[in-house]
TrEMBL record:
This is Acetyl esterase/lipase. It holds the Pfam family Abhydrolase_3. InterPro entries: AB_hydrolase_3, AB_hydrolase_fold, GDXG_lipolytic_enzyme. One of its GO terms (molecular function) is triacylglycerol lipase activity. Residues 183-206 are annotated as: Disordered. Gene3D superfamilies: alpha/beta hydrolase (3.40.50.1820). Signal peptide: none annotated. Residues 72-279 form the Alpha/beta hydrolase fold-3 domain.
């Protein structure tokens, strides 16, 4: 496990985030996601990288170099209730430029209108679309927050169905336990082991609402909803990124422990004072750049890329 001290740039971002109330209702969440999507679509891409519509549900997209060396299926964040594939475009474009990989970000149905298993079904369809298109599975699977939990649940489902698995996975601030009451989660450490503070981005009550919306009538301990309760055998080499200033720190640590207990290859980077999904939410900080470099190295290593 790597622990990285915070930069001045990250401290400024976190201070700004802490000055504003966390998102606490679905309407606000969706409005912010829409604004973020518009900004992402308007932002320039790195040289040699393009964003094109992807197969499957409307809104899916592929961010790719001219001659991609493989494809990563990447699932967006948003608590299963908000978000779009375009929200992760800046991050996936950075990784596409660093690795030569294409990043296929599929749209999936959102709760409460479409509770579990809709998102997981849609993720599986996207996975099988890539499998049928090339005859091979995606080289890797990844995701952030709810998308990270969804990526892990997808890996378990395709393994159990006997489909070929990817060679690597990347999870950023994964939400893997929707059964544990957010208010009861251990607060994330801020400066030291005895100093505690709130997550600057996530309202515990709203997180609980999102969990109820997504689970619907399903037991939240079902591994499809909360993959921390699933079996970790035979899963691919996985890299996990998380910050200490987030309620989902425990989810990431427990996930890494479950991989290790099953004898699977796993690396975990814990970044001091970094907020939720910091490689996405703090893109102009040294921490985000370092996380992208770690993820790119993980992908290059396990996909045998030069």
């Amino acid at each position: 496990m790597t622990r990285v001290l915070p930069s001045a740039a990250l401290a400024r971002v976190v201070a700004d985030v802490r000055s504003r109330p966390p998102v606490a209702d679905l309407a606000t969440h969706r409005a912010l996601a829409a604004a973020g999507t518009a900004a992402a679509v308007a932002a320039p891409l790195p040289a040699g990288i393009e964003a094109v519509p992807g197969p499957g549900r409307p809104g899916s997209e592929i961010v790719r170099p001219a001659r991609p060396v493989g494809t990563v299926l990447y699932l967006h964040s948003g608590g299963y209730g908000a978000g779009t594939p375009q929200l992760c475009r800046g991050f996936t474009a950075r990784l596409a430029a660093a690795t030569g990989l294409a990043f296929f970000a599929p749209a999936y149905r959102l709760a409460p209108e479409a509770p579990y298993p809709a998102a997981l079904d849609d993720a599986e369809v996207a996975y099988t679309l890539e499998l049928s298109r090339t005859g091979e599975p995606p080289a890797a699977v990844g995701g952030a927050s709810a998308g990270g939990g969804l990526a892990l649940a997808l890996l378990m489902r395709i393994r159990d169905r006997g489909l070929p698995l990817p060679r690597a996975a990347v999870l950023i601030s994964p939400w893997v336990d929707l059964a544990r009451a957010p208010a009861a989660r251990d607060p994330a450490p801020r400066a030291g082991p005895d100093e505690r503070g709130p997550d600057p981005m996530t309202d515990p009550g709203y997180l609980a609402e999102l969990a109820r919306n997504y689970a619907g009538g399903t037991d939240p301990r079902d591994p499809g909803v909360s993959p921390i309760f699933g079996r970790f055998h035979d899963l691919p080499a996985t890299h996990i990124e998380v910050g200490t200033a987030e309620l989902l720190l425990a989810d990431a640590v427990r996930t890494a422990g479950a991989f290790a207990a099953a004898g699977r290859a796993v690396t975990l980077s814990v970044v001091e004072e970094a907020p939720h999904t910091f490689p996405h939410s703090c893109p102009d900080t040294p921490e985000a750049a370092a996380a992208a470099a770690r993820i790119a190295l993980h992908l290059r290593t396990h996909l045998d890329l030069a």
